Amino acid sequence: MQFQSPQAQVLCSELELIRQHLTLADTTVLELGCGTARITRLLAEQFPIKRLIATEVDARQHEKNLASHYPTTIEFRSGGAQAIDLPDNSVDVVFMFKSLHHVPLPLLDQSLKEIARVLKANGIAWILEPVYAGAFNEILRLFHDEKVVREAAFHAVKRAVDTGIFSLDKQIFCHTDTRFADFAEFEQRILNVTHTEHRLSNELYQTVKRQFEAHRGTDGARFDNPIRVDVLRKV
C-alpha cells in the first residue's frame, strides 16, 4: 500500500469516484464522521440508496444535522467509529470522508474492527483521506499540523489489511478541488469548526490570512488537494 502518489495529478470529485467504482442501488450505507452532512445529502439525492445512516461524534454538529431538512432515507445518529451501534453484518458499504484521521489514535484499530463487524460479507469500506501535501495543507499546518494523525490513520488501514481483517480492493489517488470565495468563508469553514478548537494568536491569524490571500484571485481562492481512497473489502 502507498501513503501517497506524487504522480497523481488528475482532478476528481468524491461522487464521480463513487459512481465509477461502486454500485449503491438498494443498499444500506453507513457514513462515519459525517460532519455538516454535505456529502451525506448528496449521496441520498444522487444515488438509489435504500437506507443511509450518518454518524457524527461532535454533539453540536449532530444537533445541527438533526435540526436541518434532509431526505427521509437519512438517519442521523450520534457516535464514533470505535463503537458503532449497529448489528453485525448489517451494512453493505461504509464511507469515511476525511474522517478516519480524526479518530483518537488509540482507537484507530478498534474502529476498523468495528467497520468490519457491521459490514456484510464482501462489503466495502471506502476510506477517503487527505494526503499530507499541497498548498492548502501548507496553510493548515500553520495552526493544525495533521502529519502524525494522517500517517497513523494510513498505518491503521495497512494493519487491517496485513492482518486479514480486510483485503485491499484498490487504491485511488487524485486531487479534489476546494474553493473559497474569500478569507471569511475559509474562517467559517476551517477555523470555526465545532469539532476542533483552533486558538490562534493575532500574529498567527495574520500569517494564515496572508498565505491564504496569496492564492486568491478575482473568483476567490482555489486549491488542488491530493487525496487517497483505500477501497477495502471485508474478508
Brief overview, please?
The protein is an alpha/beta fold and 235 residues long. It is built from 8 helices and 8 strands; from the N terminus they run αβαβαββαβααβααββ.
Overall geometry comes to globular
Structural class given helices, strands, pairing?
alpha/beta
- Which regions are unreliable across 5 or more consecutive residues at pLDDT < 50? none
Number of domains: 1
| Biggest beta sheet summary | 8 strands, mixed
Would you give the CATH topology?
Rossmann fold
Q: Your description of this structure?
A:
- By secondary structure, the protein is α/β, with parallel strands linked by helices.
- The protein has one domain (14-175, 226-234): Rossmann fold (3-Layer(aba) Sandwich), CATH 3.40.50.150.
- The chain is built from 8 helices and 8 strands.
- Strands 1, 2, 3, 4, 5, 6, 7 and 8 form an 8-stranded mixed beta sheet that branches.
- The longest helix has 16 residues, at 147-162.
Q: What is the topology?
A:
Blueprint lengths: L13 H8 L6 E5 L5 H9 L4 E6 L2 H9 L6 E5 L12 E7 L10 H11 E12 L4 H6 L6 H16 L3 E15 L2 H9 L10 H12 L2 E2 L2 E15 L1
Parallel strand pairs: 1-2, 1-4, 2-3, 4-5
Antiparallel strand pairs: 5-8, 6-8, 7-8
Offer a few descriptive terms.
235 residues, alpha/beta, Rossmann fold, 8 helices, 29% strand
